[in-house]
Amino acid sequence: MARLDSLGTVTNRGFDGFFFVLCDAQLPFGGWDEHSEAMCDEEVQYEVGGQRACVIGSGDAGALHVFQDPQDGALYLTQPREGGVDVEQIDDAVQSTTTVGYIDVPSGALVVALAYPPLNKQTSGDFADAEHQDGEILRIERTGALRLELQHCASGVRYRVAPDPGSSA
After folding, report:
1. Handedness of CA 156, 86, 59, 143 (dihedral sign)
2. Domains in the chain: how many in total?
3. How far out from the chain centre does Cα 75 lie?
4. pTM score, two decimals?
5. How far, in Å, are 130, 131, 135, 146, 157 from residue 149 at the CA level?
6. Checking CA distances to 138, which of 21, 25, 49, 148 falls within 20 to 30 Å?
7. Looking at residue 82, what is its pLDDT?
8. Residue 38 resides in a domain
9. Residues 80, 65: contact at Cβ < 8 Å?
């Protein structure tokens, strides 16, 4: 695998729990106030307003590092390791891959964000007035249908986000 470019880290700074949403930057996602039951049931795939989005956990870390492969544009989301970012886990050979969901990105920007605050809408629950703070949201230029995969490697697991080859979008 080529040297990867770090795009940043999305961190849970203000709320308990470790859920992150991957969706179109303009999607009206209701956060915890509208999706708490599905998050607790560990559902990954969501449909909101006819668009697909995914919610994932980050384990005990409360953060996701986002890398991009400059050769094919694939994104890799990994949990931090002791001492910071462990780029070696990206270079691990993949032992198995499972498709866990799909993300529609018609606006041209994918968001990786803390899933608790709502995004692009008002809610009336515990997080009604919450907004994403610095470090809790990352916007990445992308368009079309994306596939979210969970890859198992010798050093652990990582997520891969890449265009869905089965989509004409």
Report:
1. negative
2. 1
3. 10
4. 0.88
5. 29, 28, 24, 10, 10
6. 49
7. 60
8. yes
9. yes
The answer to whether position 168 is within a domain reads no
Residue 13 belongs to a domain: yes
Range of the domain at 12: 5-163
| Mean confidence (pLDDT) of the chain | 86
Read off the pLDDT band of 17 (50, 70, 90). low
Query: How many Å separate Cα 127 from the centre of its chain?
Result: 20
Q: Using an 8 Å Cβ cutoff, are 111 and 24 in contact?
A: yes
How many residues appear in the chain? 169
Strand partners, 131: none
Nearest to 74 by CA among 51, 45, 94: 94
If phi over 0 gives left and psi between -120 and 50 gives alpha, with beta otherwise, what is residue 72? Answer: alpha
What are the strands, taking DSSP E only, across the chain? 5-11, 19-24, 45-48, 51-57, 63-68, 75-78, 94-105, 109-114, 137-141, 144-153, 156-163
